[in-house]
Design goal:
Helix content is 72%, strand content 2%. The protein contains 17 helices and two strands. It has a two-stranded antiparallel sheet with strand order 1-2. It starts with 10 loop residues before the first helix and ends with a helix.
Length: 377
Amino acid sequence: MHSSNPLLGRSPGRTLGLTLALVSAFAFGGSGTAAKPLIEAGLSPLHVVWLRVTGAAVVLLPLAYRHREAVLRRPGLLIGFGLLAVAGVQACYFAAISRIPVGVALLIEYLGPPLLIGYVRFVQRRPISRGSAIGAGVAVAGLACVVEAWNGLSFDALGVLFALGAACCQVGYFVLADAGSRGERPVDPIAVSAYGLLIGSLVLTALTRPWQADWGKLGGDVVMNGHSLPALLPAAWMVLVATVLAYLTGVVAVQHLSPPVAGVVANLEAVVATVLAWVLLGEHLGLPQMAGGLLVLAGAFAAQAGKPAEAAEPDRAQAAGTGASGTETSDARTGAGATPGTGTGAGTVPAGATALGERLARAAEAEGRRGGERDRR
């Protein structure tokens, strides 16, 4: 399930990554719409996010057991993903939607991709494609339209701060999902998702004290835009679709695309959430907000359609190739020749083979000198 090059990938890998990123964005987009009726029914935002994350962790337990070697392979990566990409993002987001509209909270949260581009470019010092940069800029303009920045932040200030916190944690989601496929000990993206949700569930259990919640409300009905429906219906959608499916497809998508491209494409989640909140929750948005949504779409298209930037891996491969050429030249000087089955990326020639080649070269040189002396005599 890993791309041979997480940043670029081949064309089929990039197509698969884009498809999975779109599925993830649509799945994530329904989380707030499904959760808000539960919050309005009396469950706290943190108890709802605990339900979401813990339910998904239970569903993914068999996959976590299957990939249990990942715990020893990259424990720091899994812990970081659980703290930031799961507990941090979800807790901040659900706290935000309890105070401000779903669409607005999600659109503020998706300032994360521009922050991610800055992190990759200036902290990791990796190249960014022109399409990603343009797409991020267009998406930011769309976000400004949605929140009507020219009028000031007229929404609940604490809700806006929670949404910005979710944006910062979202940077960790993309960076850590990409890091899982790198290094000498890569981790399967399914393991990253499964253990991230398990760790996030443990953290949220300690913070939210779920035993204090009135879970009996899940056996009753909730109201969605004036219509009554069983509370278990939005709860199941939130766990199975908006969490399990969303995380699995999202982490795999990042490893087939570059984090900046995946981040900007993920802005579509905000558009999906806004439309669903409009249709299902009656949270109507004005003309500037709709125009902003179109700009977000345009930004996502620009990011994924642009020519990918050259990654760091090709530079390392070029350096490795130069070293291999240098080894080959050295072998030619010593007379060792190419070792059967040794390619450019095979590393250095074994010491024994080099020593043998040197001995043969010296013997041939000595034989040549003796032959020249016989000819002169």
